[in-house]
Amino acid sequence: MCIVYAETAARDSLEQVISEALVQSGFDKSDVRGVCLGVSGVNHPSDQEKIENWIRDMFPSHVKVYVQNDAIVALASGTMGKLHGCVLIAGTGCIAYGFDEDGKEARASGGGPILGDWGSGYGIAAQALTAVIRAHDGRGPQTMLTSTILKALGLSSPDELIGWTYADPSWARIAALVPQVVSCAEAGDEISDKILVDAAEDLALSVKAVVQRLGLCGKDGTASFPVVMVGGVLNANQKWDIGKEVSKRINRYFPGAQTIIPKVEPAVGAALLAMNFLSS
After folding, report:
1. Which intervals hold domain ATPase BadF/BadG/BcrA/BcrD type (predicted)?
2. Across the chain, where does the E strand assignment appear?
3. Partners of 80 in the beta sheet?
4. I need a surface site. Which of 163, 165, 185, 270 has the fewest CB within 10 A?
C-alpha cells in the first residue's frame, strides 16, 4: 500500500512539474518533440521503464522520452551534452558516474550513507554528530563542533542531540549541518578538519575508481578528460574549499583531468541530451 501511494505521489508531482514548465514556456504538449529527465535513484532498467511509461502517458505518441540517472544530466551540463568523462555529485548524497568514448558506463558510490557515502553532505554531518557524542561520552577528544552544532540547533546539551537526530533522521536535515563543520575546520578544529580531509579523499577515490574502470586516463595515465563537479558540498566557496581539495587529489591521480564547474543548471544538460538523442 505504501509503495503504491509513493509511486502515485511521485507521478502526480512529476505531472505537475511538467505542466508548470509548459505554462512558463508558452507551449503545449503537442509542441514537444522530446523529453529527457534526470532522476535520482534511477539505477535499473525497470526503474527507467516505469518512469518512461508515466511520461508517455502524459504526452502525444510522437514525443520521444528518455529517462536517465540525475548524474548523467549533471555530466551533460558540464560537457554541453557530450557523454564522455566523469561527473562527481556531492550534495546531500554523492555519486561518481562516467562514460568512455564508446559509451561504456561506470559508477562509484551513490549507495547512500548506510553503504558508506562518507564524502556526501550527510556523511560529513553524521560524522560531526558522532564526534560530538563521542566527546560528550569521553570516548573521543573534545571538539569545537559541540558548541557550534548545539548553538545552530538551539539545544543545550549533547544529550539532546539523540532526540533531535531520530525525531526526523532525513538525509537533507542532517546534511544541512555541513556549514557548521566547515566553519569549525576554518577556525582550527582538528576533528572537523579531519572529517573534511577524509571526505575530500573519499570523493576523489570515487572519481579514481570510475576513471580507472573506463580507462579515461589512457594507458600512461596522462590522457585528458573532463571531470564535472556538481553539488553544494563541492561548490560552497568557503575558505576551507572541499571542491578545491577534491580537485587537487584528482589531479594528483590523473594530471590530464580537467575539472569543470558547470555554468548551467543540470536541467540544461537534460535539454542538451534530449536534442542529442533526437538527432542521433
Report:
1. 7-274
2. 34-39, 64-69, 85-90, 94-99, 105-109, 225-230, 257-260
3. none
4. 163
35 Cβ neighbours under 8 A, 6+ residues apart: 18, 55, 59, 63, 64, 65, 66, 274
**Are the C-beta atoms of 223 and 256 separated by less than 8 Å?**
yes
CA gyration radius for the chain?
Answer: 21
Residue 213's identity, in one-letter code, is R
Under 8 Å CB-to-CB from 136, ≥6 apart: which residues? 146, 158, 159
**DSSP type of residue 90:** E
Q: Mutual orientation of helices 45-58 and 2-25 as an angle, nearest 10°?
A: 50
Specify the amino acid at residue 260: I
The pTM (predicted TM-score) of the whole model is 0.89
| Count of positions (residues) in the chain | 280
Q: What is the pLDDT of residues 18-70, one digit of tens each?
A: 999 899 999 999 999 999 998 877 777 888 898 999 999 999 999 999 998 89
In angstroms, the CA 227 to CA 252 distance is: 14
